[in-house]
Amino acid sequence: MGVTTKDIAQICGVSRTTVNRAFTNTGRINKETKDKILKVAEDLEYRPDMLATGLKNGKTQYLGVVVFDVRNRYFAQMLNAIEIEAKARNYFVNITLHEKDKEQERDMIQRLVDYRVEGLILSPVSKGNDFGTFLRKMEKPIVIIGNRVDKEIPFVGIDEKKAASDAVQTIVRKGYQKIVFICPPLADVENENVYSHEQREEGFLQEVQKHKTVQYEAIKSWNYLSEVVKILTSSSEKTAFFCSGDIFALDIMKHLKQLNKRAGQDYGIMGFDNIDTLDYVIPRLATIDNVVEKVATKAVDILFDLLEGKEVANKTLVDYVEIEGETL
Amino acid sequence: MGVTTKDIAQICGVSRTTVNRAFTNTGRINKETKDKILKVAEDLEYRPDMLATGLKNGKTQYLGVVVFDVRNRYFAQMLNAIEIEAKARNYFVNITLHEKDKEQERDMIQRLVDYRVEGLILSPVSKGNDFGTFLRKMEKPIVIIGNRVDKEIPFVGIDEKKAASDAVQTIVRKGYQKIVFICPPLADVENENVYSHEQREEGFLQEVQKHKTVQYEAIKSWNYLSEVVKILTSSSEKTAFFCSGDIFALDIMKHLKQLNKRAGQDYGIMGFDNIDTLDYVIPRLATIDNVVEKVATKAVDILFDLLEGKEVANKTLVDYVEIEGETL
DNA sequence: TTGAAAGCGCTAACAG
DNA sequence: CTGTTAGCGCTTTCAA
Q: How many independent structural domains does chain A possess?
């Protein structure tokens, strides 16, 4: 590497300890020597070696973030919020991505810990006790967004169940007689949905069953497009599709448009997430804003509470927002 | 931290040197002691401290990436490609984001270097000699995507100028008599466009001027929407808008749709980038695919060439793809 | 085949 | 106010 404290010490005719003191403002030090040291350091463009500092202190001022697939709008917004919030506290963020691969996910977490990040924010595909144990073994503050791992690890999110339930109420109020829930599998491999989508489904089922006159159905396969067409052409009831993600809704709208079925008129449709692609699509999709930026910000707050040794709730809910659209 | 080589050495009754040899396969070592060491290490769940290793070797197996604003689809695709390509070579990626802030940009680069990333891939907002000098001072392999900094620092991208020129040819061929180039400023602060958009503009101008019968105009302000409306309502020529980014095109299409003007019929429009939001928008926007994933992959390839001490071209072009749409 | 010793660059306890 | 010393955890001569 380049310039070290040793070089500076030599040039200034002092010890490395003194040089260190000049930087850290710790211990008493003569103003003149300090100024001189700082000046020399600047002239030489001295930069402390963070690996050495980190090694010594066991602290790196880094947070680790692991998410799957940034291409998902949801995550992009999340990452930005985390970055901003962390920066505000003078921390840095190491973002790592993977593609819904559970093994990779563990690797990346492990790797970040090996590099001594001080805390982790995760939006994992893995969950369950086994994964929870793995995380606890890291012995680092961890906050989870999006997929509840287990009861113990702090989680931040919205009340997905209640949001889905609200959505169903809205749909019913609009006079739909049949509601179809679209919820294809997310983690492809094991055909297992992440927590939030499971919750959405639960919320849907719980609420829709309260309305005796309303028919319902849940489609959980990947070829939902053809199923949707089948339903729409075969049934006479006023039908709405409630999708566990905006993407599915957009996909359906596009497909049906080609068949000359118009959202909001020939059928109702509602999404979930409020991804910003919606800004460019007409008609405006009705959806639930999962306030991902707020959630991310809150997650960082909680992580810092943990870092400061504070107690935190193991579940923190942020208020979602229902967005009215033109598709219901 | 947890278990160290010292612990393992003690347990196995050998020196730390020997433990190290067991891991690195360097130097001769008794098969039995080796096996024993590895076994103990596994039992204790030993993890090498990467800060210590990095400090010692001056190598971290990390690449640094700095981009502004992942919310931009463009970058999201890029990051994924980089991550995958780096992983394939057993390297890790530290992604850092900022919001078009030049000072922050430098900070983050500096910080990554302080952490001894071995190389950098940047898509910077800054450019020019001054920034080039700054980068060279890092004394790290660097590859630039998207904003040419200066002649010396290796750059990967598409031939933006030629792509824009091609686009104009296409538009002219479709019979448009007036072409309006939409290119609002990207780096808000200084009203200065990044290289790629400048190139697109140059390509536009160069080509459009070859077609004497075609009128043209360039709108470079943020309130392009009202300008567009003004032009469309006031002129009788068959008009097409060529946007330096898909986002602007989508914005215009949405706005004009509300005024009952239909893309592809009442006016032509073409974008640039081929962001994947286009998949959900009807009509399909004509655009240029900037093949960002290919570019990113290539950038990593080049970075590794640099890491291996190979000579690389200071400018590498990847073939773009013109996408036909329904909007011309 | 193994170990002792020195050092990467920074920090902190303890003396002076 | 300043310096000496030891050590973070790992690696690498060099010698045994």
A: 3
Give the B window 107-166 contacts with A, CB below 8 Å.
108, 110-111, 113-116, 137, 139
Mark residue B28 as left, alpha or beta (left: phi above 0; alpha: psi -120 to 50; beta: remaining).
beta
**Protein CA at A38 to nucleotide C1' at D7, angstroms:** 26
Give percent of chain B above pLDDT 90. Answer: 79
In this structure, chain A runs to a length of: 328
What is the Cα–Cα distance from B196 to A325, expressed in whole angstroms? 36
Rounded to a whole number of angstroms, the distance from the CA of A213 to the nearest CA of chain B is: 34
Contacts of A58 in chain B (CB under 8 A): 1
Whether A108 and A13 map to the same domain: the answer is no
Q: Is residue B325 part of a domain?
A: no
B10 CB closer than 7 A to any strand C atom: no
Task: Give me the domain span that covers residue A97.
Answer: 62-158+292-319
* Whether residue B285 sits in one domain with residue B193: yes
> CA A269 to CA A181: how far, in whole Å?
10
Report pLDDT for B1: 64
pLDDT of residue A227: 96
B228 and B135 housed in the same domain: no
- Tell me which of A183-192, B7-16, B110-119 is least confident: A183-192
For B274-288, what is the mean pLDDT? 93
Determine whether the interchain pair A114/B70 forms a contact, defined as Cβ–Cβ distance below 8 Å: no
pLDDT, average across residues B47-76: 87
CATH of the domain at B140: 3.40.50.2300
| Inter-chain touch A257–B97, beta carbons under 8 Å | no
Q: Are residues A283 and A166 in the same domain?
A: yes
| pLDDT of residue B189 exceeding 50 | no
Closest CA to A51 of B54, B223, B300, B209: B54
**Length of chain B measured in residues:** 328
For B78, the closest chain A residue by CA position comes to A71
B166 shares its domain with B232: yes
Q: Which residues on neighbouring strands pair with residue B98, listed in sequence order?
A: B68
Task: Inform me whether the C-beta atom of residue A260 falls under 8 Å from chain B C-beta atoms.
Answer: no
Subunit contact A280:B250, Cβ cutoff 8 A:
yes
Give residue A70's pLDDT.
65
pLDDT at B10 (0 to 100): 92
